[in-house]
Amino acid sequence: MRLEHSQSSSKIGARILIIEDESTIAELLRTGLTYEGFRVSVVSGGEEGLECADKEDFDLVILDLMLPDIDGFEICRRLRLRGNDIPIIMLTARREIPDRIKGLNMGADDYVTKPFSFEELVARIRAVLRRRGSAAEPTQLSAADITLDLEAHEAYKGGKPLELTPTEFALLELFLRHPRRVFTRETLLNRIWGLDYEGDRNVVDVHISNLRRKLGDRERRLIRTIYGIGYSFRPD
User: Count of domains in the chain?
Assistant: First the structure.
C-alpha cells in the first residue's frame, strides 16, 4: 500500500505514522488526527512501516499489533535495536495483561486496546508527546473563564474547581479545543464513547445537560444546542 500523507490546512502539528491494516480504523485515525492538527501518514504493512520510520522523521508511531506480515512486537523490537527511540503507541484488540507488559518491555510508550475512544487516544498521544518532549503540546486549555489542567486532569470555572466526571471532562476538553465547531451527536458518540457504543444515544444529551449545570450555563449560552444537528461551544 502506498504511503498516504494528510495535512491540516489550519494548523501544523506533530508528524504521526500509523501502521494499521484495517482500512476502516486507519481512515478514522487519518481523518480524526488530521483534524486535530497532526500531520498523518498511513501504511498497512509492518515492513513498509519500518522502512518509513527509518527514512522519515516522525514524532510518534501508532502501531497495530496484528499485521499481515510481521507483528507489532517485532516492529517495536527492531526499531529499538536500530537505536530508533521514536515514541510508540500500540493499538490492538488483545486485552491480556501479559501482552501489554510484553509491548511495554519491548519499548512501547503506551498500549491502547480496541475498541477505543478516539478522544482517549488523542489524549494519550498528547501525553506521550509531552513526556518525550517531541511536540509543544499545551498543558492547559482556557476559554470563557474556564480552565482545564490536562496533566492534573482538573477543571476550574472562575478559579473555582469543577467536579467533573471523566466523560464530562472529555466533552469539555473537546469543546475547548474546537470552539464554535458544531458537533453532531453521532460525532460526539464516536469521539467520546467509541465506535462500538451500542447503548442509548440520548446519553449525549444527558451528559451535556449535566455539564451545563456544573458550568452554570442555565441559559445555554456556552454550550449551544444547534437544533436538528448537535452542539457547539461558544465562548463569546
Answer: 2
Residue type, 217: D
Cell digits for 64? 497495530
pLDDT per residue as tens, the chain (236 positions): 445 544 433 344 789 999 999 998 899 899 888 888 899 999 999 999 999 998 888 999 999 988 989 988 899 999 988 888 899 999 887 667 777 787 777 788 998 888 788 888 988 898 888 887 755 566 788 998 999 998 888 999 999 999 999 899 999 998 998 889 899 988 888 888 876 667 787 899 999 999 999 999 988 899 999 998 999 999 88
Domain span including residue 198: 140-233
Count of Cβ atoms closer than 10 Å to residue 157 Cβ: 17
Domain final residue, candidates 84, 105, 132: 132
Long-range contacts of 125-129, Cβ-Cβ distance < 8 Å, separation of 24 or more: 125/16, 125/33, 125/38, 125/60, 125/62, 125/89, 126/150, 128/60, 128/87, 128/89, 129/14, 129/59, 129/60, 129/87
**Same domain assignment for residues 157 and 182:** yes
Rounded Cα distance, 93 and 4, in Å: 24
Give the CATH number, domain containing residue 198: 1.10.10.10
Tell me: do 11 and 126 sit in the same domain.
yes
